[in-house]
């Protein structure tokens, strides 16, 4: 009599020792699969978070440069000579006199 070849289905039959080992450890295998899925999801979440952080850092640096440029323009445009150039068009000019200091003397009655 010729020997019958064993296939995968023959090993999975409930009466074989291999099938009992697989069924006995099936909850453990499912749990490991679940942990693997959570691990992969966590890695994807971390990578997305890092990408967002890098993007926000780039935006912060760009805004910082814009702020410094705006401050430099404000400092330049608020110099007395620049203000004088801009108000000459409406007819204002520098008087050329020094500013006077006003001193108010307090009474010693209080």
Short précis:
The chain contains 3 helices and no strands. With 110 residues, it is mainly alpha-helical.
Order of helices and strands: HHH
Mean pLDDT: 86
Stretches with pLDDT under 50, minimum 5 residues: none
How large is the count of helical segments?
Answer: 3
Distance, first to last CA: 130 Å
Per DSSP, what share of the residues sits in E-state strands of 2 or more residues?
Answer: under 5%
Q: Work out the count of structural domains.
A: 1
Number of strands: 0
| Broad structural category | mainly alpha
Largest sheet properties:
none
**Helical proportion, percent range:** 55-70%
The geometry reads as rod-shaped
C-alpha Rg (nearest Å): 42 Å
Describe the structure.
The protein is mainly alpha-helical. It has one domain. The protein is 66% helix and 0% strand. It has three helices and no strands. The mean pLDDT is 86.
Q: How are the secondary structure elements laid out?
A:
Elements (H helix, E strand, L loop, with lengths): L7 H4 L5 H61 L2 H8 L23
Features:
mainly alpha; 66% helix; 110 residues; 0% strand; single chain
């Amino acid at each position: 009599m010729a020997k019958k070849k064993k296939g995968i289905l023959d090993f999975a039959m409930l009466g074989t020792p291999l099938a009992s080992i697989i069924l006995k450890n099936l909850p453990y295998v499912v749990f490991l699969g679940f942990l693997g899925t959570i691990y992969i999801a966590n890695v994807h979440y971390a990578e997305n978070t890092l990408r967002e952080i890098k993007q926000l850092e780039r935006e912060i640096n760009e805004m910082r440069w814009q702020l410094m440029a705006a401050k430099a323009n404000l400092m330049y445009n608020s110099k007395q000579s620049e203000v004088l150039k801009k108000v000459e068009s409406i007819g204002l000019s520098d008087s050329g006199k020094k500013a006077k200091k006003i001193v108010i003397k307090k009474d010693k009655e209080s």
